[in-house]
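User: Hi! I have a protein structure encoded as tokens and I'd like to know what sequence might fold into it. I'm fairly new to this, so please keep things simple.
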């Protein structure tokens, strides 16, 4: 029966090809949206790992998450280094990594921090940050670049750059009296880390010497930088801090005690919870695209049924010959369903192959342009279930023409020979 179905489809190759292309395109669209959504959600939820708490000035959790992890928005206030030191001395806290934000370079955020940032902050499933080239900063004038910054701006180890005061819509003057030199470039992570420039807190404090209320009073070219002791460059305030606990059991208790800190108004949020809340807001867009994909698939299946119905009259002679050769009405109607099944299987094979190839070819583009780290896989269990559902729907939709062929083959016999 399969050979006969293939021969029948080959005889009607042009309309069958059009239906095959339509069904394949709709499956490609569905698989692409699903894979991008999966990669985006995975990267979104794993943008930061290894950090138990984010501590910052009193604000909303989403706001604190956006500017500390995603480098979006602007902090309303800072927290003092005395508070950071007090937190680091607590017995239930293992480590504290402060960060200072506010400056940028050609649209990318500058993050001032300590060397511990590269050891303590992780991404994905507890993956540590690693260097593609070079190493962490060890001098005041050294900067570490995220993968996308280096890729987009063409920087290499030893490249020199200036930092601009402010970020986003509130750009100020360039710190053109002190240049940073690239000491390291991080491996791609598919997270906002790829879009960051990382300098030491002391180096960040140095370029702001001579600045007051966002205005430059005097330049560093008039100062002997080498004569400034490092302890004089320790900042009085920072934007926020990443905190690691000695025991996960104490997570909510520590978060509550930090939020009730008497000496300063603080917020302490659990990154995983805040990420889930944020995704519940932004993830609705992907659901709309998935709905559109299902609508396209429905239209393609309807087109396949329409093609089968429209060719029934033209195939009466073919069906009659099959009946004359001894084929039962059940065999003839089953032939129609087999044809639909073969078209569906071919569409699935082409769609999976095409999407896998495109994922392989566009992996670097997705990472650099969208920050999406797409994993190459032939077919996941969820995708297989979705495609089988589509195949079942296509097979079910072929029941109508199959029933019509069954009835006609019973009544017509050889009358039209």
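Assistant: Happy to help. Inverse folding works backwards from shape to sequence: for each of the 417 positions I chose a residue that suits the local structure. Here it is:
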């Amino acid at each position: 029966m399969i050979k006969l179905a293939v021969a029948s489809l080959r005889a009607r190759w042009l309309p069958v090809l059009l239906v095959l292309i339509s069904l394949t395109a709709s499956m490609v669209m569905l698989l692409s949206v699903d894979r991008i959504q999966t990669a985006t959600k995975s990267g979104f939820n794993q943008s930061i790992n290894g950090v138990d708490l984010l501590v910052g000035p009193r604000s909303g959790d989403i706001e604190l998450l956006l500017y500390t992890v995603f480098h979006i928005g602007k902090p309303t206030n800072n927290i003092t280094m005395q508070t950071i030191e007090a937190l680091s001395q607590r017995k239930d806290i293992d480590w504290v990594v402060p960060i200072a934000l506010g400056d940028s370079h050609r649209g990318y955020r500058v993050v001032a921090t300590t060397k511990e940032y590269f050891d303590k902050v992780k991404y994905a499933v507890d993956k540590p940050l690693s260097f593609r080239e070079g190493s962490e900063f060890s001098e005041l004038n050294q900067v570490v670049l995220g993968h996308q910054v280096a890729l987009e701006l063409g920087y290499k180890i030893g490249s020199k750059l200036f930092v601009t005061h402010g970020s986003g819509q509130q750009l100020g003057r360039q710190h053109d009296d002190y240049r940073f030199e690239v000491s390291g470039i991080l491996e791609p992570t598919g997270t906002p880390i790829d879009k960051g420039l990382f300098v030491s807190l002391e180096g960040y404090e140095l370029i702001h010497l001579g600045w007051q209320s966002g205005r430059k009073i005097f330049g560093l070219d008039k100062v002997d930088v080498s004569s400034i002791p490092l302890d004089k460059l320790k900042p009085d305030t920072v934007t926020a801090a990443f905190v690691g606990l000695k025991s996960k059991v104490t997570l909510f208790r520590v978060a509550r005690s930090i939020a009730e800190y008497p000496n300063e108004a603080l917020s302490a949020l659990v990154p995983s919870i805040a990420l889930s809340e944020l995704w519940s807001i932004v993830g609705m867009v992907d659901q709309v695209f998935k709905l559109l994909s299902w609508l396209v698939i429905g239209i393609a299946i309807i087109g396949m049924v329409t093609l089968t119905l429209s060719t029934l009259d033209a195939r009466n002679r073919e069906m009659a010959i099959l009946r004359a050769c001894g084929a039962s009405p059940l065999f003839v109607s089953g032939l129609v369903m087999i044809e639909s099944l073969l078209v569906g299987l071919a569409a699935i094979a082409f769609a999976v192959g095409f999407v896998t190839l495109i994922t392989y070819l566009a992996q670097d583009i997705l990472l650099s342009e969208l920050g999406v780290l797409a994993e190459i896989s032939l077919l996941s269990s969820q995708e297989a279930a979705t495609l089988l559902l589509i195949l079942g729907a296509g097979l079910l939709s072929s029941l109508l023409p199959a029933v019509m062929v069954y009835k006609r083959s019973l009544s017509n016999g050889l009358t039209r020979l």
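A useful reference point when you look it over: The CA atoms of residues 53 and 270 lie 5 Å apart. Feel free to ask if any position seems puzzling.
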